[in-house]
Design goal:
This protein is of the alpha+beta class. The protein has 4 helices and 17 strands. A hairpin with a 3-residue loop joins strand 9 and strand 10.
Length: 347
């Protein structure tokens, strides 16, 4: 079993339990280097790597130049459809993380850097995910920043500490390489184990966000290879009444694995495997609220209940999430009954 050089363990525990994920609506749970592979699977596909020399500068379209004594470790850009709330919230988050310096051994935290996504902190209402559905809540859209930072960390070869994927897959993000955050329950955290300080550079436009990490390179290249979708689960169709309903297109649920490959002097020197589980994204059809109708969600077509994570719900209440398109400090223990209230939306 091979591992990245300097890492103390070949296997990391899941960062958030399946039970907690079910309650919070976190389908894709980041499992760290849950099973370091000895080599890429035959059906894995290589994805572009993000290493020194790639351009960043989402705002100006120009490469980010490293200051004296630092190199570009990685740079990553996420594109998204323009929307006023998204542009505003992403720009606010970028403002709060840009320029941070992470010392050797220190841990960078999205929630600590950005703070709670409230009106008082400069955020506006946007679309988030709650209990497998899109809803409106302050800070919607900032998961684009979390996803961009996660990929910048991934390709810089830094150590992930806490991370969680969206409950269902959002097509504009890389499969198995995306992140969401929820204030009080789910964070995105990574540790600077490079041996030198790391500087964060972030910028955004109305349609993209870029994060570049500067420091001292430990690897010539970091590659990502993705396996096929497995355990594919079809979505169901649901009708929802009421003015707060947000329509939702269907998408299958699936599992996917991504390898992070460390390259030095043209040779692979380490590999980590990250596994993600996505629940189906059910089709939501909004209908006018009937005076005699009972508020809530009514399954349509199939008599079965909406598809959900097979995990046992946790008694822990959830917290807001970061955006349609967050890491856990310690593993949660699933417990309790399904009567536990659903978590607030995640950005």
């Amino acid at each position: 079993m091979r591992r990245a050089p300097g890492r103390t363990a070949t296997t990391r525990i899941a960062l958030i339990s399946a039970g907690t994920a079910a309650v919070l609506g976190f389908g894709g749970v980041f499992a760290g280097a849950a099973a370091a592979a000895t080599g890429p699977a035959p059906d894995r596909t290589a994805e572009p790597s993000a290493t020194a020399g790639a351009t960043a500068g989402a705002a100006a379209g120009a490469p980010v130049k490293a200051p004296a004594g630092q190199q570009v470790l990685s740079t990553f850009t996420v594109a998204y459809p323009a929307a006023p709330y998204r542009t505003h919230n992403i720009a606010r988050a970028v403002e709060l993380i840009n320029g941070a310096v992470v010392g050797q051994g220190d841990i960078w935290s999205f929630n600590r850097a950005v703070g709670e996504r409230t009106v008082e902190n400069g955020f506006v209402d946007g679309i988030m995910i709650n209990d497998g559905r899109y809803v409106k809540s302050p800070g919607g859209g900032v998961s684009a920043v979390a996803t961009t930072m996660y990929n910048a960390m991934f390709f810089a070869g830094l150590k992930p500490v806490e991370h969680g994927a969206h409950s269902f897959y959002i097509e504009r993000y890389p499969e198995g390489r995306e992140a969401t955050v929820a204030w009080g329950t789910l964070d995105l955290r990574w540790q600077n184990d490079s041996g030198h300080p790391v500087t964060v550079r972030a910028s955004s436009t109305s349609t993209s966000v870029t994060v570049t990490l500067l420091g001292t390179k430990q690897y010539d290249e970091i590659r990502a290879t993705k396996g096929p979708r497995t355990n594919v689960t079809p979505p169901v169709k649901r009708t929802v009444a009421g003015p707060t309903c947000e329509a939702q297109t269907p998408l299958e649920g699936f599992d996917v694995s991504v390898d992070r490959v460390f390259v030095r002097a043209g040779h692979e020197v380490g590999r980590e495997t990250f596994r993600t589980h996505y629940t189906p994204r059910d089709e939501i059809v909004c209908v006018p609220e009937s005076p005699t109708a009972t508020p809530g969600t009514t399954p349509s077509g199939s008599p079965g209940a909406p598809s959900a994570s097979p995990a046992t719900p946790s008694t822990s209440p959830g917290a807001p999430s970061a955006s349609p398109g967050a890491p856990s400090a310690s593993p949660a223990t699933p417990s309790g009954s399904p009567a536990t209230p659903a978590a607030p939306p995640r950005a």
